[in-house]
Design brief:
The chain is an alpha+beta fold and 226 residues long. The protein is built from seven helices and nine strands, in the order E-H-H-H-E-E-H-E-H-E-H-E-E-E-E-H.
Length: 226
């Protein structure tokens, strides 16, 4: 789940035979051009994330790192930082989304049956400006799980069979009666479409900019060697 930017090194051999100066500087200049293309690809991915996702956080927008090329490896890699990779993987590759840590924790604390549910879809719960449930909200809910009375949290399937498994908050009073408000609804799976096509984004950057980056880097390298 990364973009590899490299070059056909057979072409380098042809240029090396044409000029001793160019031959000496070409690997370094090529490496510099690859790095420039990689950083441009990283910027393009950041911009694309704002188009692909609905109100992405800066945490997601800035997920991309660059492993720089050297004149011996001649390959630069643009890849997501390890802690952010799980949040991007399903949108890049498509398929079933993995279980999030808070989902595994909540289901593990269920006091009632959750059936085959393994995902939690937000329902009547406060979200932040990006449309996500914040960590502080999840932490507050965790402290209320398996408690009693108003404001307590129940995880499982409510009695009666009419409502799905999920995370419910008890509302109301003893006089009016406690009711369950759905905070999350449990689902057996959550399937993602492949919407973040990082390979296509990276290829467009290379096609548009690499030749110019290489020309500029080579001119600078040759000039500095004189």
């Amino acid at each position: 789940m990364a973009i590899n930017i490299t070059i056909d090194q057979q072409g380098i051999g042809l240029l090396q035979r044409r000029s001793a100066v160019v031959a000496k500087q070409l690997p370094f200049a090529t490496s510099q051009a690859l790095n420039s293309a990689a950083f441009s690809a990283r910027d393009a991915l950041k911009g694309a994330s704002r188009e692909v996702f609905d109100r992405p956080t800066t945490y997601i927008q800035n997920a991309w790192l660059v492993q720089k090329s050297t004149k011996t490896t001649l390959i630069a890699v643009v890849y997501p930082e390890a802690r952010r990779r799980p949040y991007l993987k399903a949108n890049i590759l498509g398929g079933l989304r993995g279980t999030k840590p808070f989902e595994a924790k909540y289901f593990g604390q269920a006091s009632g049956s959750v059936g085959n549910a393994s995902r939690l879809i937000p329902a009547a719960i406060n979200r932040n400006a990006q449309g996500n449930v914040s960590l502080s909200v999840l932490t507050r809910l965790s402290a209320k799980i398996s408690t009693k009375g108003k404001g307590s949290v129940f995880i499982g399937t409510p009695a009666g069979g009419a409502r799905p498994p999920g995370v419910y908050e008890r509302t109301g009073t003893k006089r009016t009666g406690l009711r369950l408000r759905p905070l999350f609804v449990g689902k057996p799976s959550a399937t993602y479409q492949r919407i973040f096509k990082i390979d296509e984004i990276g290829s467009k950057v290379v096609q548009r900019r690499f030749n110019e980056y290489l020309r500029t880097s080579l001119e600078r390298a040759v000039a500095s060697a004189r």
